[in-house]
Amino acid sequence: METKQNKKNPLKHPDQRVGVFIDVQNMYYSAKNLHNKKVNFGNIVKEAVAERKLIRAIAYVVRTESKDEQPFFEALYNLGIETREKDLQIFSTGMKKADWDVGLAVDAIRLAPSLDAIVIVSGDGDYLPLVEYLQSRGKQVEVAAFGGTTSSKLIEEVDDFIDLSLDKKKFLILPQRNVRVVREDIKRVGRN
Q1: Which of 13, 150, 161, 175 is 20 to 30 A from 48, alpha carbon to alpha carbon?
Q2: Low-confidence ranges of the chain (pLDDT < 50)
Q3: Contact at 8 Å (CB) between 146 and 31?
Q4: How far apart are CA 111 and CA 150, in angstroms?
Q5: How many domains does the chain have?
Q6: Which Gene3D superfamilies match (predicted)?
Q7: Its pTM surpasses 0.90
Q8: 104 with 23: CB under 8 angstroms?
């Protein structure tokens, strides 16, 4: 599926103040469903900032009871990405919910006065009213997401769209080979 590229070509200059707002769940499932890989959030933030002044980078994440995701949260922190954490909701029906759309939107609106450009890292069409609101306040709004799971209306509306699927090596984490397999490869090479 070919993604329609937004041709608005916004001005990006070194003095522009940028905020990056990352919908982790959206990105995780998009990368998993499209490419069966994990996301390289550090490279996404670097690309989104585009040598401008990063004011804030915030990742919206979900905590589970097992706390298995804690090393991931620490990795984000080490990359200079703040985390906003919310507990996974489990309903009596067994249904689970982990939604940060409203929290991300509130933070983007709250921080907008100190930003020139706002980058939403998500392809979720639910952010369309947020994009329209921020643009009506004179903000440059950009989206970075995987094109195959990004709302076409969102792509059309934003000032710039970065299709992360166009450079998979940069924005996805390639699976690491099993250490045992690597050791076997080394032994085999040594015998030849």
Answers
A1: 175
A2: 1-4, 178-179, 181-182, 192
A3: yes
A4: 24
A5: 1
A6: 5'-nuclease (3.40.50.1010)
A7: no
A8: yes
